[in-house]
Amino acid sequence: MAAVNADPEVMRWIRDGSVRDEDQTRGGVQAWESEWESQGFGLFAVEIRSTGEMAGFTGLSVPYFLPEVLPAVEVGWRLGRSHWGQGLATEAAAAAVRFGFEERGLERIVSIAQVGNDASERIMTKLGMQLVRETVNPTSGRRVRVYELSSDQYVTTAR
Known about the structure:
This protein has helices at residues 2-5, 8-11, 22-39, 88-103, 118-126, 151-157; strands at 43-47, 54-61, 74-79, 108-114, 130-136, 143-150. It has 159 residues and is of the alpha+beta class. The longest helix is centred in the N-terminal third of the chain and has 18 residues, at 22-39. The protein contains six helices and six strands; from the N terminus they run αααβββαβαββα. It starts with a helix and ends with a helix. The model has no long low-confidence stretch (mean pLDDT 93).
């Protein structure tokens, strides 16, 4: 995960676009692990089945950085560049959404992308999410779009 977080192209759309070093990545992973205990959900490693290689992560977290959407649970993902464009993020995010609704009984899941991150917005629409607002991330000053999927919408669109 440290290599993924150290890639400026991967991190371009994450918060202020800064890369993260190994210590910062380790701290992030520890925080994600504690969410499993406190929230009952968190992030999953995305692994390539045929090789066992870690491609990145997907999963559920609380988007504390954007208080105006709270209470909410966000589905997110981050993959290394060599894994882009293969449908992995969509497949993994769909599994996380399914987990959130079917295993954790969530009523609503959001996803947040910086304006201009068209690839992530395409994934959100493939998940059945609808754009509900455009706003500014107060931690980075960057414009973001918030997409949403309710449990009722999920039930009618789930395949």
